[in-house]
Design a protein that fits this description.
The protein is mostly helical and about 230 residues long. The protein has ten helices and no strands. Helix 1 packs across helix 2. The radius of gyration is 23 Å and the shape is elongated.
């Protein structure tokens, strides 16, 4: 019995230690992310990360061997988290029983959600950061691109292909059509947001952009027999 009690106490102590270690690691990532976004890669030091996270510099290096590894884990984590957004976009298109009369509304809702997801200030700041450091971290920039923008187009292409199979759209190249849709929706507001970080488009602006993007897209890709 005494041995069992001791084992339970040891397990509890280990769990508590793991919890503290996890909280410290999370604090390091959160504070480093804020610093990278504000100061860039070159303008951020591991000393400052440790101070902001309220941990020792030794703890920072215990979790991340150097600044490059810390930066890489942050960007990869952000890229991996985009899967949830992609799932939400896919669900809009995957609505059952979408017919020719519903196509405008479904694609407009998709465009509006696409705009809301991509133009979030934090997302745009991260995108600026990745672009700024693309020469220093080309593989990381490629990873981010493949997991976020390119993955979104791939998901969209798959759903548009099913619409073509049901006679709603006429596509020769679903991936090209998905790129056309994405850029019709995002090109103007995203380009502006990259260079005007303090501006926030109104909901009315988003709605107008979304509807016009869908109108132009369907003028090119709607099946005339649907």
């Amino acid at each position: 019995m005494a041995q069992s009690t001791s084992a339970r106490a040891s397990d509890s102590a280990e769990a508590e230690q793991d919890g503290r270690s996890g909280r410290k690691r999370r604090a390091i990532i959160d504070e480093a992310t804020a610093l990278f976004l504000r100061n860039g890669y070159q303008g951020t030091s591991m000393d400052e990360v440790a101070a902001r996270a309220a941990v020792s510099k030794q703890t920072v290096y215990k979790n991340f061997a150097d600044k490059e590894k810390l930066f890489t884990e942050i960007i990869r984590g952000v890229a991996d988290s985009s899967e949830r957004i992609l799932q939400e976009l896919s669900e809009v298109l995957h609505t059952a029983d979408v017919g020719a009369d519903d196509l405008d509304d479904v694609l407009t809702e998709l465009a509006q959600r696409y705009l809301s997801a991509v133009l979030q200030p934090r997302v745009m700041r991260l995108r600026r950061l990745v672009i700024a450091e693309a020469d220093r971290f080309p593989e990381l920039a490629r990873y981010y691109y493949d997991k976020a923008p390119a993955r979104a187009v791939k998901v969209l292409a798959g759903e548009l292909r099913t619409y073509a199979e049901r006679g709603l759209l006429r596509l020769d190249d679903a991936t090209l059509a998905a790129n056309h849709f994405a850029y019709l929706v995002l090109a103007i507001p995203q380009d502006r947001a990259l260079f005007h970080p303090d501006e926030q488009p109104s909901t009315g602006d988003h709605d107008r952009i979304a509807r016009e993007a869908v109108r132009v897209f369907l003028a090119a890709y709607r099946d005339p027999h649907s």
